[in-house]
Design goal:
single chain; alpha+beta; Beta-Lactamase; 2 domains; six-stranded antiparallel beta sheet; 49% helix; 20% strand
């Protein structure tokens, strides 16, 4: 039965649909679209948690994207294949699933998660644009969901699929423009400053802008301990926590340096390629931002370190984004190496000046106290001591 035939419920529902339409068409950001759809869908049926499983048609996988005021919490899987669990079944069949008692449904996986939270009801809707699956929208709750809202939710999903497609097209064109600008900016870094600290800071800022990421860091190998040390970190206003020291060969940074190629993952602790100490793995498991992309910083065949970008768990860096990050890293490595060479040259020049001043002092006076004081001052300056 169509919406128009539900005279009592149709008007509020249509106003909700119109409001959602204005929200999603006025936004060109994917997260903003998902947030609006999730909020309205949850309010409409009284869902406790909302999940968006973003589809990758090439790999036939779904990745959980956590957005909105009621995201899915602590679900034990952030990536699943088509056909796996209910969301995977919906992706496989392109059909909605409306389940009143989810723990008893044969398609439902990870029943301990459902039982621990007392959830029973599940709605899973395919978000399709043309012949392409964009995502699967899931809503969960404790009480049965009203069936009368089924048609409205399907319209929500269809509207959102169009909006997300438009947002992706906008993001792709905008990203290409920003990539060119960011790469040009890195080139200008070579001319604007030769301070290693400033160069590293700007590199982390610009790579976040380039990839719309939450945080970035430059890791360098420590000659004494052999560990990878985060010597420069940039964070946006969104929360992110970096491991300051990593055993060499561990994590995305260690893998990128070992293979000398980019390493990307939607979840560092779920990726079997990545090794961590038990302590580091336990710390990472507590965080909600575990998607990472690492690219090695290499100049004339020598690895200076690795540039790491971090974002919310579940984000999959696309091949285009990885290529942009690699091009950016090539420029960044040159900027860092030029700054290091300049700093070394400045240090050598100052060292020669200090030694010349000591020699002049020794030659200009026979007072031992004066000579010893100047030698002590020179030693402190050369060693960087107080």
């Amino acid at each position: 039965m169509g919406l128009a035939r539900h005279n009592g419920a149709a008007a509020p529902d249509l106003r909700t649909l119109a409001r959602l339409g204005r929200l999603v068409t006025s936004s060109l950001g994917i997260d903003a679209v998902l947030d609006a759809v999730g909020r309205e869908a949850a309010d409409l049926v009284g869902a406790a948690e909302v999940g968006f499983w973003i589809a990758d048609e090439a790999t036939r996988t779904l990745t959980l994207r956590q957005v909105g005021p009621r995201p899915v919490h602590a679900y034990p899987a952030t990536v699943m294949s088509y056909g796996e669990s209910v969301a995977g079944w919906v992706a496989e069949h392109r059909e909605a699933a409306w389940i009143a008692d989810a723990p008893k449904d044969a398609r439902v996986a990870r029943r301990d998660w459902w039982e621990a939270r007392g959830y029973k009801s599940l709605i899973a809707l395919p978000m399709v644009h043309g012949d392409t699956l964009i995502a699967v929208l899931t809503l969960v709750g404790k009480a049965p969901f009203p069936v009368r809202h089924r048609e409205m939710l399907e319209l929500f999903a269809a509207q959102a699929a169009v909006a997300i497609t438009n947002a992706r097209l906008y993001a792709d064109s905008n990203a290409r423009r920003e990539a060119a600008e960011a790469l040009a900016e890195v080139g200008r870094l070579l001319l604007q400053t030769l301070d290693p600290t400033i160069v590293a800071r700007r590199i982390t800022e610009h790579v976040c802008r380039l990839l719309d990421a939450r945080s970035a860091a430059v890791y360098r190998p420590d000659a004494d301990s052999g560990m990878l040390v985060a010597d420069t970190v940039f964070e946006t206003d969104r929360p992110f926590v970096w491991q300051r020291r990593l055993d060499r060969g561990t994590g995305v940074a260690g893998r990128a340096l070992a293979t000398r190629t980019a390493c990307a993952t939607p979840d560092v602790i779920a990726d079997p390629r990545l090794a961590y100490t038990p302590e580091t793995r336990a710390e990472l498991a507590e965080r909600t931002h575990r998607a990472m992309l690492a690219v090695p910083l290499i100049v004339t065949g020598r690895a200076l370190g690795a540039l790491i970008v971090g974002d919310a768990t579940g984000r999959r860096f696309t091949p285009e984004e990885i290529a942009r990050a690699e091009a950016f890293a090539d420029q960044a490595a040159l900027a860092l190496e030029n700054a290091r060479l300049y700093a070394d040259a400045e240090g050598g020049r100052r060292e020669a000046e200090v030694l010349a001043e000591v020699a002049r002092t020794v030659g200009a006076t026979l007072e031992l106290d004066v000579v010893l004081v100047r030698i002590a001052e020179a030693a402190r300056e050369l060693c960087g001591a107080d």
